[in-house]
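Write out this protein's structure.
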Amino acid sequence: MTTGPSRHEPVLVEAVVEALRPCLDELVVDGTAGLGGHTQALLDAGATRVLAIDLDPDAVRWLTTRFQDDSRVEPVHASYADLPQPLGTERPAGVLLDLGVSSHQLATAERGFSFRLEGPLDMRFDSTTGAPAAQLVNRLPETDLAALLREYGEERRARAVARRIVARRPLESTTELARVVAGAFPGRRRLHPATRTFQALRIATNEELEVLRQGLAGAHVALREGGRLAVIAFHSLEDRIVKHAFRAWARDGEGEVLTRRPIRSGRTESRRNPRARSARLRVFAKASAG
């Protein structure tokens, strides 16, 4: 993990810090801490305590090393979907969720997230549990595979892609799968043909949308009165769930949506960090007591 920091730049850092600034005198939970970029930014802004949670054991090992001399940070191997359980009886003033796959995970070939790097068809955030993406690729019936690609990848050519995968399986590597998928797309395309397929398989492998629903509900329960929840989504499926949850809580009088529209990266950040181009930050403030 020593190469982690050089490959990782957190997105929307200034917006995240401003959103959570009123919370920094109390406990803040970084529910998807990764390599600690947002955690470090919150510390630099004056955070007094950060619980840095991540489901990826590699990330937790890196966090432990990075913050070993900083008593303000407590790394924890857990899923944010388990909130409020990792907190015990504490109620944080702020919670941050930075969703999706990290740049370090994408850059680590053996994790199987990237269609550009040769690796196994794994894609698990926690590689110590659950089934890898290879089981979906090589075992799902064609109709079910097409439905998965359509629902989680919003892939318009889902049937054609599923048909090619089934005809050529078993498939063993990321690059092999990417080549097979590319064959379902005639002509040149701006977006790599395998992008949506890999997104769909990753989401399904990690049950990301259900985890997000559980995590939002748990974070809302965990927050103290007047606390803030900030969520960064990277595609419409995630962002829609966050938007609807925030609006439902506001309608029920449980707080206020602080972002009428999601906060997006500016041109400078988008040029410097391509991952930021699709990032959307939404912020919710829980109602105060009384």
